[in-house]
Structure formats: structure tokens, C-alpha cells
UniProtKB/TrEMBL annotation:
Keywords, comma-separated and alphabetical: Acyltransferase, Transferase
Source organism, top-level taxon: Bacteria
UniProt-recorded name of the protein: M28 family peptidase
Source organism of this protein record: Telmatocola sphagniphila
Biased composition (Polar residues): 1-27
Database matches in Pfam families: Peptidase_M28
InterPro entries for the chain: Peptidase_M28, QC/QCL
Organism lineage string: Bacteria, Pseudomonadati, Planctomycetota, Planctomycetia, Gemmatales
Length: 317
């Protein structure tokens, strides 16, 4: 993901100290109608660490294969239908293509009107925001960049079978090939989401995707989500719905301000008529750096976003 505006823009200083004091309110065990899912921030962090412990998960690598295996087991055990949408990832700068796969995790697959919660799961081959060139090729775990989305979906997955009745089917869609790029002048971004979008347009399934919410860089400490400009332009109504729910639930991280225009996996979805927005905190100071580690992520930040998503899922029709 990158901004259309200057990429060398100064990012605001972030406070990176751990949050003091955990919420003492006990977690509800059931997901009551109209209420947020009883999302467990500690378990979400456990998933995040478990994925990072696999090491880098670059498209086509062993790390990626191990993660796919882990996720397939996780979501099938929870009762979801898991599909791998396989394709070949090609870049102009690379002599060989690499086998890639988007993962589609379907809940109530019989529903003909569906919504998507999505993000990417591949990690970047190079940590190219590091100042020292020799650091670029050191192992890069990408904790908040992609991995945090997968961790949120893993935790939310624990509650989906016990969710209050929804009017829409829900697909968690995890894209491959978002980060698999080597030469920004020649290579394409967003291989997985573009493939998914083209496939949806060209082989129309028996169901319709109504809307999609993309998560990226959303799990840092002290997050802030302004309106991402491309989302506002392409899917302003959906953006308003989601930010209004956040306001109602007193989730103050969703701020009513214009943010950067970010090119990300939601662009392909909007291109084929799926209204899609990106919930992103582009001021995350560890973006594409070796310090993008679990210790710079927060389960509470994940829980706040999940709170908004889980209410939105019930209201959408
Ligand atoms: Zn990235």
C-alpha cells in the first residue's frame, strides 16, 4: 500500500509506550443481538505473535505455506468454508512467476447477498523504509502490515458461528501478492485483490458482494483513522455508515477528518462495483521497517475496530 501523495512526508511522532491499565470489565461470553462481538484482545495478540513466529511470509515462500496451513485448520475448526483462489503472480522485474492464493473464508455461504472483511497476508520481501540499505533484506515480520488483519479475523472467527442472525453472508477475504514487489517503476501492486476483482467481474458467482471493509495498519498503539480519501470518493456512503457506528459506540479512533489518499487493496474491489473502504492509520511509525513487530501492536486497538465491524455486520442488509 502507498499514498499517491509524497511518500517522504514527515509522519507525526507517535507515543509508543504501552497503554497503562487493562480494562477490568469481564468479557461477555455470548454475542448478544445488536451488541459488539465479545472480542478477546489478548487472544488476538496471541494469534498475531503466533503468525509472526512463523517468520517472514513472503508470497510463494515456505513461511506463506505454513501460514496457509495454520489458517485453513483454524477456520475449518470453527465451522467456516475455506477456499483457496489460486493464481500465478507475475512481475516484470522477476524472471519467474510465483504461485499465489487468496483465501476466502465463508460464513453462512448460502446467503446470496454478501459482505467482505479483508486484508493481505503476505509480507514484504524488503523492509524498504529502513534508512540503511543493508537492513532492507533482514527478516521482516510485518506485524501490523497485513498480519494484524489476519489476527483480527482469527479472533472474530471464534464468534461467527454464535453471531446474532445477520441479513448478509460474510466472507473474510485474505489477499496474497499485496507486498510482492521489487521495482516500483515496473512492478504492479495488489496482485491478489486485482485477481479477486477480475475473477468476480468475469465469472459472476450466484451471490453478490454488496460492500467490503479493508483493514491495513490498524493495530498500532494509539491509532487514529481519518477518512482515507479514495474510500471517501468511491464509497462515501459506506464510510459514513461505519464512522457513524464508531461515534455511537464511542470509538474515538475513528476521526471525522480527511486523511491521505492511499492506494490499497480496496481499489480493485471498487473498480468492479463492490463498494469498499480502507480503515488505515497511515501514521504508523513502523511501516515497512524492521520494527513493525508485535510489541508495537495492541490487542485493544484490534478490539476497538472489531467492535465497530461486528455491529456494522449486523446492521448491513
Ligand atoms: Zn505494506
Amino acid at each position: 500500500m502507498f499514498t499517491n501523495s509524497s511518500s517522504s512526508k514527515e509522519l507525526p511522532e507517535q507515543i509508543t509506550s504501552a497503554k497503562s491499565g487493562q480494562s477490568s470489565k469481564p468479557l461477555a461470553s455470548t454475542w448478544e443481538a445488536g451488541e459488539p462481538a465479545p472480542f478477546d484482545p489478548d487472544r488476538a495478540m496471541k494469534y498475531l505473535k503466533q503468525l509472526c513466529d512463523l517468520g517472514p511470509r513472503i508470497s510463494g515462500s515456505d513461511g506463506m505455506a505454513k501460514m496457509q496451513d495454520l489458517l485453513k485448520k483454524h477456520f475449518e475448526n470453527l465451522g467456516a468454508k475455506v477456499t483457496f483462489q489460486k493464481f500465478e503472480g507475475k512481475q516484470r522485474s522477476q524472471p519467474k512467476s510465483v504461485p499465489m492464493a487468496n483465501m476466502i473464508i465463508s460464513w453462512n455461504p448460502e446467503s446470496k447477498t454478501r459482505v467482505i472483511l479483508c486484508g493481505h497476508y503476505d509480507t514484504r520481501p524488503i523492509a524498504d523504509q529502513e534508512r540503511r540499505r543493508e537492513d532492507w533484506t533482514r527478516p521482516f515480520l510485518s506485524a501490523n502490515d497485513g498480519t494484524s488483519t489476519v489476527a483480527l479475523l482469527m479472533e472474530l472467527g471464534n464468534h461467527m458461528k454464535k453471531a446474532p442472525k445477520m441479513k448478509v453472508g460474510v466472507d473474510f477475504v485474505i489477499f496474497d501478492g499485496e507486498e510482492w514487489m521489487f521495482d516500483p517503476k515496473r512492478d504492479k501492486f495488489f496482485l491478489g485483490s486485482d485477481y479477486f476483482a477480475d475473477n468476480y467481474r468475469d465469472h459472476r458467482p450466484a451471490y453478490t458482494y454488496k460492500s467490503a471493509i479493508l483493514l491495513d495498519l490498524f493495530a498500532g498503539i494509539n491509532t487514529r483513522f481519518p477518512w482515507e480519501e479514495n474510500s471517501r470518493f468511491e464509497a462515501g456512503g459506506l464510510m459514513e455508515e461505519v464512522w457513524d457506528i464508531a461515534k455511537e459506540l464511542n470509538v474515538k479512533e475513528f476521526v471525522f477528518e480527511r486523511g491521505d489518499a492511499v492506494l490499497d487493496d480496496h481499489m480493485g474491489l471498487n473498480r468492479v462495483g463492490i463498494k469498499a473502504i480502507d480503515i488505515i492509520d497511515f501514521s504508523y511509525p513502523h511501516w515497512h521497517k524492521l520494527t513493525d513487530l508485535p510489541e508495537n501492536c495492541s490487542g485493544e486497538s484490534m478490539a476497538k475496530v472489531a467492535k465497530v465491524l461486528s455491529v456494522w455486520l449486523q446492521r448491513t442488509k
